Amino acid sequence: MRMILLGPPGAGKGTQAVRITKDFGIPAISTGDIFRTNIKEGTELGVKAKGYMDKGDLVPDSLVIDLVRDRLSWDDAKDGFILDGFPRTVAQAEALQGILKDLGTKLDIVVSIVVPDEELVRRIAGRRVCRACGAPYHVDSLKPKVDGVCDICGGELYQRADDNEETVRNRIAVYEESTLPLVEFYTEAGLLTEIDGTIGIDKVEGLIAKALDK
Ligand code: ADP
Ligand code: ADP
Ligand code: ZN
What we know:
With 214 residues, this protein is of the alpha/beta class. 49% of the residues lie in helices and 15% in strands.
C-alpha cells in the first residue's frame, strides 16, 4: 500500500502514520523528521533546512525532492510506504509521479485530514514529540504513561522549535497557499479521500482503515 497523508500542521498526520505503520508493516516517511534528524546531526542538508523551518516556511523543492527520491529507493519501501508531510507543493507532487514511475509503481490513495485552524493552533501549542522516534503526544489530550517519556521507545519528549503560536500561523498560511492545491491535483487523479480530523484519534484511524479497505 502506497499512501500520502495530506493535511495542515497539527491535523494528525504523524499520529495516524505511527498507527498505520503498525497495522500494515510499512514505513512512515516524514520529510519533517528527516530534516530534524539532519539538523540534530549538523549535516549540510540540516544547516540549509533550518532557517526555513524555524520561520515555518517551506524548504526549497530541490532539497526535498532528492531526499525523497533516495528514501523511496530503500529496500523497506519496496512493498509500500506512508508519506507524511510530502508532497507539499504541486512541483513536489509532479516530481513524485516521476520518482514512482522510475521505480515502476504508483500511488494507491491520498488521505486528506481536515481540521479547523483554531484547533490546529491548540494542538500544535501543546504538542510534544519523541526525540528518538518522532511519535507525537499532547500535554492535555494525549499524555504519555510516564511524564516526558515516549510510550513506544522510551525516548525523551520535547517541544519542537517551530511549535509556537507565531510560527504555526505562518505554517497554516503556507499550507493554504502552497499545499492546498494538491487536494484538487489528487482529486483529479481519482486518489483523494477527505477525512474529518476533529473526531478522536481512534475514530480517525477507523475512517482511514475504512478508506484503505476500498
Ligand atoms: P507538521 O507536523 O507541522 O506537518 P513537518 O514535521 O511535516 O510539520 O514539517 C516541519 C517543517 O519542515 C515544515 O514547516 C517545513 O519547513 C519543513 N518541511 C517538511 N516537509 C517538507 C516538504 N515536503 N517541503 C518543504 N518543506 C518541508
Ligand atoms: P501533524 O503530523 O499533522 O502535524 P500530529 O500527528 O503531530 O500532527 O498531531 C498534532 C497534535 O495533535 C499532537 O499533539 C497530537 O497528539 C494531537 N492530535 C492528533 N490527532 C488528534 C485528534 N484526532 N484529536 C485530538 N488531538 C489530536
Ligand atoms: Zn519514541
